[in-house]
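Quick board copy: two proteins, each given as sequence then tokens.
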Amino acid sequence: MKKKACFPGSFDPFTKGHEDIIRKGLGLFDEIVIAVGVNSNKNYLFPLEKRLRHIESCFKGEQKIRVITYEKLTVEMCKDEGCSYILRGLRDVKDFNYEVPIALMNRSMTEIETVFLIPDTSLFAINATIIREIYKNGGKIDKYVTNFDQLVN
């Protein structure tokens, strides 16, 4: 049986930290579905189409990666996609305190297990919220986002 994981998020933008977690996960799973959640109440900086194209450009030629969008509970999307695992990254205690209750709730609703990975320490400071603020204020973010040109062009 294939081990399939889902890596959900809004990815606004998809950072080198996200990419690092996916690359680590490739050694653990037969397939990883990068699932871009769509929330009509959220104002995104980067349009959905550009976020999808950007993520796909980061994993061009990688047969074990699929990129999708979804507008439902993450566990429901996981069931639909045949994913038994949710892949998440943890940088610090704040991430742990946010992610663990969600993982426990997901497990109480389904048999989907959450797997936590820690990114390379050089990527700990990368946070999509901070990256968006840097970009909105005219700062350069290509140091934190692979294939940045795919996101803005």
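And the next:
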Amino acid sequence: MASLHGFQEITIRKPAGKAVMTVTKTLIRFNKATVTAMGCPEYVKILVNPVTRQIALEPCKASERNAVRFSKARNKSNEGTAQASSVTVREPSVVDAIVSFFDFAEVDEDHVAYQAINGQIAQDDHVAVFDAANATAGVMKRRGRKKSQTQE
């Protein structure tokens, strides 16, 4: 339209919430806000800096070396939709590398010790960085099926 010549559309950035990474002895979980703020990449590289004890997520292509499946692929039917939930990474080499940054409390079998870290996401390249020095320790009830109790 001629009457809108020179105008620029304002990009709306909806706050997605805080990016949080939760670490247990067996898995690494990234909350939905992290996935959304990173632009829902299908694959990421997970990098660690053992000196600064930082963890970074960098979007990448499936064909790149050390690519880890992260969020659901977008296709024409779900284009524009975000990841429906958080992302859990159970790749043993990734979990081992990250878990080494933390000490976990000893808990009974009905509970799980965890470390939660708020992260920063660079808006220009969608890279997420989490600093283990800022982790908060906690304990939560174990989810899932209960182990059957045997009576003697």
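Board note added afterward: The chain has one domain: 17-76+85-141.
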